[in-house]
Amino acid sequence: MHNRRAALVTRHINEEARDRMNARIEADRSLMRQRRCASEHPFGTIKRMTGGGRFLTRGLDKGKTEAALSVLAYNMIRAAKPRRCPKPHSKARVSKNKEAPENRSL
Question: Which of 15, 29, 93, 106 could form a disulfide with 11 if both were Cys (CB 3.0 to 4.6 A apart)?
Answer without folding.
Answer: 15
